[in-house]
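User: My instructor asked us to take a sequence, write out its structure as tokens, and then describe one feature of it. I'm not sure where to start. Here is the sequence I was given:
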Amino acid sequence: MNKVETKKSFLLESLSLLLILVLTSIALFHSTMSHAHQFSTAHAKLEPNGDNQYQGYIAVSLQDLQEELSIDPDNDGRLKWREVIDSMPVIDTYLTNHITFWQQPENTVTDQNISLLDKSPAIACLVEWSNSPKLSELYGERLLQISFLISCPTTTEAIAYLSLKYSAFFDSLNDHKLLLTWLYNDNERFFIIDSNQQKIDLKFVSSSVLDTIAFYLYQGVIHIWLGLDHVLFVLALILPFAWLRFRRGRFSSTQSLVLKDLIILITSFTLAHSITLTLTALNLLSIPSQWAEIGIAISVAFTAINILTQWIKKLGVITFLFGLLHGMGFAGALSELGLSQTYKISSILAFNLGVEIGQIAIIFLLFPMLSRLRKTQTLQYRLVPTLAVLIAIMGGYWVIERI
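Assistant: Let's start with the prediction itself. The structure tokens for your sequence are:
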């Protein structure tokens, strides 16, 4: 081997070790964060209720309220309904200080020829909270649901839209978000408010099926990219393609990696999880969310171990069976988002398609690494087993964490 080839090999091995380090760091960071607080999501629904009035509700996690406001006064770890009722003045005040509404007159946004002095200012609205809260449950999490009525001052000017700013929990919970359903003319529009986007404008226009498809398509892509357990499962599925050149300890240089084979495998995974996702979203299948999450963690660990042991040589079997489990996990994410009642089937299909696009994007990013592994025996022996062990450890950790 000449100096150029030696240097190239050294660089490749260095990049491989760097990849392992990055993967391990992300996994450990993700696990630490998820152990501290796995979900932090509030839900709200809002619709017009006559002239200059709007009605709706907000549902907030009891765990979030406890962490932010300490509504369990005896700190016994068991939040009682009486304690929640007694804490309602504190909760109402907190929400009032972190949720504001105002109307925007049309000339503030449409007529650019009007001077700043002549433009009408935004009209602040008053929020009145119901004194009859109730409990609800979504995907295994208990939520406190509070109805509210928004009253805006009467004005002779035409209103362009209603604006909303939400800032609750962001200081203490970085991953918190509000999922808002805006109901207008019996059509739903969906918005996600997080620490980076705290203000939204609710326009008085009906939604279309294209708006709904775009929303759920994007959310499907984001969910697969941000879900480390799903990403590691996909990685564990495709790593054997870098190992296939070994046959009983012998190394062959004749096989090449075919991208089509990878996409077919991942598509079969998509078909499998589409079945359980659809059945769960349509309330035709129900399984406790905890068991679904445990099953997903087991699938990650087992698929990684199978890379080394080759207990099951037909990858399609693992892909399809475990895909059914992951579909239940995806259904939880879809349930958390809220399923459009106007375009229910379109929402499910768009979310599924978004997940598939996200998975294929991961494959395209990893394809160069897999191709290189098939050509370098040393890298295969070092990198593939190491990644398989790391993924198996993470899967085992998640199993223990979710039990």
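For the description part of your assignment, you could build on this observation: Residues 3-36+215-402 form one domain. Try explaining in your own words what that tells you about the chain.
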